[in-house]
Every structure is written in structure tokens, then in C-alpha cells.
Write a structure and sequence with these properties.
The protein is mostly helical. The protein has eight helices and four strands.
């Protein structure tokens, strides 16, 4: 958010996604969520040092420093519920939305979602998707995405 704050100033706003009525039912709009992880390569030459570095980078103090210096919003519960993070409306909105989000599946499976979505977005942008063929395009999109779910 630092770049958005700089560009938009007091015009910046952030909230969790609302609910919407879809097919006569009230549903919570959702998004995909993933989190940064810190891992240690299993065959590293210096496993103890690598583990210590990972623990240090993932501790609350380091996460808070990254937030304060770089704007990386911490997801540690101990920090997310802190006064400092809750006072930041962007961080509070992101953490509120994360609680409603869908965990992102494996990276290869995400291609089954993003590739068709990109094609639909490009079709809308270039005018290939029109009011006349929108439902057909949306049906094809759903078939493309859900067709691989059982694989």
C-alpha cells in the first residue's frame, strides 16, 4: 500500500469484500489468498544457520520491522490484532478479507483458473466478448475452470 498511499493520499480507501446477492442467495464475495513463507532447503550446506535465519525472519519483531519499513502487512495473529496494525485501515481490511478468502491451490492448478480468466478479460477489453455472447463466454469460462477440478 505505500505506493498507493503516495499516489492517492487521503483518497485511498480499503475494505474487505462485501456480500452480494447471486441467484437469489446472499453470498460472501471471496478472493484467493496466499502468504509469504520462509523455507529452508533440505540439503543446504549450513542447515542450522538457515533454520536460525528463517526463524529470525519469521518472528514478530522482524515482521513488524518489514511492515514499518516496507509496508509488508503482517499476518501473524499477534501482530494483526495489535493496535498499530488495526489502526492502519489498509492492513485491517486486508486481514479482514484474508479471513474470508479461499486458500490458493498449488501453483500449477492456478493456471486452470488464471489462464481462462485472462482470456475472458482480454476478450472483454478487445471487444470480442459482447452483451450478446456474454453468457456463452461465462459458461465456457466456468466449464474450463471446473473441468479440471477432479483431475
Amino acid at each position: 500500500a505505500p505506493e498507493f498511499r503516495e499516489a492517492l493520499g487521503d483518497s485511498l480507501g480499503a475494505v474487505a469484500l462485501p456480500t452480494a446477492t447471486i441467484g437469489g442467495k446472499e453470498v460472501q464475495l471471496s478472493n484467493f489468498v496466499d502468504f509469504k513463507t520462509i523455507t529452508v532447503k533440505s540439503n543446504t550446506q549450513y542447515p542450522l544457520a538457515a533454520q536460525q535465519l528463517a526463524v529470525y525472519m519469521g518472528n514478530a519483531e522482524s515482521c513488524l520491522t518489514r511492515y514499518q519499513e516496507q509496508g509488508d502487512i503482517p499476518v501473524l495473529e499477534s501482530l494483526a490484532s495489535s493496535e498499530e496494525i488495526q489502526a492502519d485501515f489498509v492492513a485491517a481490511a486486508l486481514n479482514a478479507q484474508a479471513a474470508k478468502a479461499t486458500n490458493q491451490p498449488s501453483i500449477p492448478k492456478m493456471g486452470d483458473y488464471w489462464d481462462p480468466m485472462k482470456a475472458l478479460g482480454e476478450g472483454i477489453y478487445y471487444g470480442d466478448v459482447t452483451k450478446a455472447n456474454l453468457q456463452e463466454q461465462l459458461d465456457a469460462l466456468v466449464d474450463s475452470i471446473t473441468g479440471t477440478l477432479t483431475e
